[in-house]
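Give me the fold.
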Amino acid sequence: MNEKNAARKSAEDSAPESPQESLPESSQASAQSSPAGRWSGLGLSGKLLGLTLLFVMVAEVLIYVPSIANFRMNWLNDRLAAAHTAALVLDAAPSGMVPEELARQILDSVGARAVAMKMGQQRRLLAVYDMPPTIHREIDTRDMRWFTAIRGAFEAMSDPNDCVLLVIGPAPRGGEFIEIIIDNAPLQKAMFRFSWNILVLSLIISAITATLVYLSLHYLFVRPMRRITANMMAFRADPENPGRVLVASRRADEIGTTERELAGMQRDLASMLHQKNRLAALGLAVSKINHDLRNLLASAQLVSDQLLDLSDPKVQRFAPKLMRALERAIAFCQSTLSYGRVQEAPPDRKAIALETLVEEVRETLGLEGESTIGWIAAIERGVEADADHEQLFRVLLNLTRNAAQALMARTPNDPIRDQIRVTGRREGAVVVIEVSDTGPGLSRKAREHLFEAVQGSTRTGGGGLGLPIAAELVRAHGGEIRLVEGTIGATFRFTIPDRMVDLDTQRDKRAQA
């Protein structure tokens, strides 16, 4: 037993692990170059041509099958029609009065060995010559179904040459039926000749049809698809090049729609990449400037600290404002790149007197005293916003600075005509603030990309970040900002909702107090 087990284990170890591993490299290479692999390597044009030829040949086969069956039926009916005439001649002659030579000539004209006719109960053999000993097939043409005709046609082509047929058809002069005995060889020869003609004609029609279909599909579909594919490859190599954008044709079909949609997508993608690169370049430039700017502001802050020691009343009045402005500028420098991060820092919310904050924004813009830009603040008395002081200040500063720059673009300014208006009111648990100006308003391009970085700027030298920053800060407070349509100049309205109060937490705090 141990020897048998050892022999069996040795045989198992020596067997190949799998059929694929046992194949030599030449066999694997031939498997890779199989017809399926060669077919998959063909281009769209080659596949299209092959499928067109295949389908045309299938159609020709479907046409040939009933055609050959119909040809056989017509050939047999022709023989029966000739037999009708012969039957009339033979039946009209007195019995036995037709000479044998004449009967033979009549049968030769019909192509039959014998002709018989049944009338009533009598079955009469009209003429006979060389009667065969055996009838191999019997064909009744009076009630022939299509599938029987098709099967009979292929049987006639496959039968041997010495096969003899008994063909039955309608009889003349009120007879019940007529019968003729014929050889299968002439029918078979005629059917092969007909098949050859059909084959040659099919090849000619297939070649012409395949050529026309191939050329039509090639010019309608394959060439445009190659053009689109080549453009996609070129665009992928250099997506920021406007010259690589597909030039759509004027076609109104699906190919034309595909070209137009692809061209639009490429333009949008190229524009997006351009804006992304511009933002990246802007972020790199700001990061380089940020360090030196903070050092300069810190030096200016040290110098401004010495102004507090001067006894001049005017200096004492403006020095605190200068100090606050420098402190805010340094804080802004610390968070210059915060817009490039995922989001701003969460707001540190507390009650802010809105009227005081608006006046602080006015002082920062320098629109006090003899300013050529009018300033109107219409804030409800005592209204407070539940917001982060610095972030709400930045929102108002960005909106009012944009308004001031729009007004200054049409110098000389008139404070009666060129005005900035800031309104604030409380509507339940929401503070609504509007910043409007009497300037020229926003262009259509600016409206389309209003709160998008860089793209929303139409002013020469503008960075296009003011409105996106303001929108981000407002959304951080849970509010909304939008452009009010139908106003003189530009009017932006934003809301700052109060924080939701947890009643259970408030009750616990009062209980602890």
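DSSP finds 15 helices and twelve strands in the chain.
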